[in-house]
Amino acid sequence: MAIVYVAVVGVVDLIVGLTIGHAAWQVALAVGASTVAVTLLTVVLVWPRLRQLEAATNVARALAEGRFDERAEGDDPQFGSLAAALNAAGERLGRMVDALRLERAQLEALLNASSDATVAVDRGGAIVYMNEAAAQMFGAARQEAGRAFIEVVRDHDLNALLAAAAQRGERSVRVVTYGPAQRWLQATAVPITGGGGWAALAVFHDLTEVRRLDSVRRDFISNVSHELRTPLAGIRAAAETLQEGALREPVAAAEFLGHIQREADRMTQLVEELLELSRIESGAAPMRFASVDAGALVRDTVERFTRQAERAGIALRATVPDAPLHVAGDAERLDQALGNLVANAIKFTLAGGEVEVTAAGTGGQIMLSVRDTGIGIEREQQGRVFERFYKADQGRGGGTGLGLAIVKHIVLAHEGSVSVESRPGHGSTFTMVLPRG
Amino acid sequence: MPREQFDRKLREIHDDVLIMSSMVEKAIQRAVDALRNRDERTSNAIISDDLAINAKRYEIEELCIHTIALQAPMAADLRNLVAVLFIASELERMADHAEGIARITLMLGDEPLPRPLAEISEMGTRTVDMLRRAMTAFVERDDQAARAICDEDDVIDTLYDTAYHAIIQEMIRNPADVQRLTYMIWTSHNLERIADRVTNICERVIFMVTGQLEEINVSRY
Lengths: 437, 221
Prior knowledge:
The complex is a heterodimer. Chain A has helices at 2-20, 23-64, 79-113, 132-137, 149-153, 156-168, 208-243, 250-282, 294-312, 331-347, 379-382, 403-413; strands at residues 117-121, 127-130, 172-178, 183-191, 200-206, 290-293, 315-319, 326-329, 354-362, 365-372, 417-423, 427-435. By secondary structure, chain A is of the alpha+beta class. A 5-stranded antiparallel sheet of chain A has the order 2-1-5-4-3, with helices on both faces. In chain A, strands 7-9-10-12-11 form a 5-stranded mixed sheet. Chain A has a two-stranded antiparallel sheet with strand order 6-8. Chain B has a single domain, classed as Methane Monooxygenase Hydroxylase, Chain G, domain 1.
C-alpha cells in the first residue's frame, strides 16, 4: 500500500510540479519513483510465485531422474494446484516403482530358489540374465550380462539350442552332456516375443544324479540276473546230462551231482551276500558294538589269509603298533570287512607282489589299510568299485562283485568311511577310517 | 567401414571359433570315453560329426577372408583375424586326431583292451583341459596364460613316453597282443599330437597379443 501511496504521490507531484514549472527535475524524479515502485511491486507480487514455480520444476526434474520422494509446496491458487498435481504424480509413481521393484525381487527370488539354471539371451546370443544356479552350473560370475553365451558356457550344443530359439524362434528340449565332468542336462529353450532385449530363455535341469541312480538300478537287475543265470545254466546242464543217462553211471552221476552242489553253493553265497548287504544297509542287522583292538584284528586277518597268500606267491604282512588301538565296533563285521579287502588284494596282485595290512591311529580315528602292489584300478573306476556288482576287472576272479559294497556298508554302519587310492599298474590302497573306541 | 561394425564382425568370428573349439573338445573327450567303454555308436557319431567340424572351419575361414577383404584391417585387428585363421585350421586337425581314435575303437571291435588305458586316459583329460584354457587365453587375449599352457606340453610328452614304453614291454610279454597294442600306441600318439597343436594355438595367441611370432615349446616328437 505504501508503494502505491508513493507512486500516487509521485504522479500528483508531477502534475503539481508541471503546473508550477519545475518541469525537468520533477519529471525525472517522478519516473524514478515509478520505476522503483513497479519493481518493488513486481518483487512482492511475483517472487513468491516464481519460487513456487521453481519448486514445481524441481519436483518435475526429480521425477525425470527417478527420485519420487521430492515434494513441492504451494498456496498460490494456480501454482499450488500444479505442485499438488506433481506431488500426486510423484507419490503414485513412487508406489508403482516400489511395487515393480518388489515384484522383480520376488521373481528374482523365485528364479534363484530354483535349482534349475536359467539363462536369457538377446538376439545376438549375449547373456541378458542368469540366475544363481546358472552361474554355479557354468562356473560364471553373475555379472556376465553382456558376454556371449558361448563364451561363458563354452558348449556348442547348449549354444545351438539357445541360438535356434533366439534367431529362428524354435522351441526345443534336449538332453545333452556338459563340461569335463560330463553332467547330463535337460535343456529347454524357448523364444520370447515382446520381451524387449530378451530373445530367448533356457532352463537347464541337471539329470546326472537321476541318470546315475537309474543306471545303478538297471545294472543291479542285470547283474543279479547274470550272476544267478550262470550257476543255473550249470545246474540245468548237469541235470539234463543226468536225465539222459548219466544217472545210471555212478561215477559220472556223482561228478554231476557234485557240480550241481557247487553251483547251488555259489548261488546260495550270492543270495546270502545280497541279503547280508540289504540287512546292513537297512540297519536290520544289529551291530554289536564293543571295544575292538584293531592291532589284533589285523594280525588275526593276516594269519587267516597266510596260506592263501603263500599259494599265490604273495608276501602278506601286518604292520601294527605295539600299544593296542581300540575301535568302537562290531568285531565280527570288522573282521568280515578287513577280510574282504585282503582277499581282493591277494586276488588282484600278481605272484611276487606284496600285500601289507596296517593299523594306525591319529586323533579320534583309527585307520585300517590294505596296500597291495597289484594291477591297480583306473581313475574313472575308483569311484565305482564300492557299487554292488561293479567289477573293475571283468576278466579276473569269479567273485560276486559284492565284497567291496559289503565293506562300504559295514564301515558306514560304524559311522566311518572307506576310500581307495590307486595307480594302474602299481597297486592300490584301501583305507577304512573308524572312530576310536 | 565403421569401427562398431568391424567389432561386431570380430565378435561373431570369435563366437564361431569358440563353437568350433567346443565341438573339438567334445570330440576328443568322447573319443577317449568311447575307447574306454568300447562304444561303437559314439565312435561312429564322432566320425560323422567330423564333417560338421570341417564345415565350421571353412565357414570361419570365409568369414575371416571376407572381413579382411572388405575392411582391410591393420595391425592388431589383422593379427587377430590371421590368428583365427590358424586356430581354426589347428582345431580342424585336432578333430581329425579324435576321429583317428574313434576309428581305432571300431578296429578293436568287441575284443577287450590289451591293457588298461592308464596314461592314455590321463592324456585325454589333460589335453581337453589344455585346449579349453588355450581358448580362454585367446578370448581374454592373455599371452601369459598361453605361455603357461605351452609349458604343460612337457607333461603330455612324459605321459606319452611312459605309455609308449609300457606298451612296448607289454608287446614283448604278449606277442599275441601286438596288433591291439599297436592301436594303443596310435591312440597315445594322436593325443600327443593334439596337445602339440594346443601349443600351436597358444603361439598364435601370443602373436595376436604381442605381435611376436615365436616358437614357445618345441615338442620332442
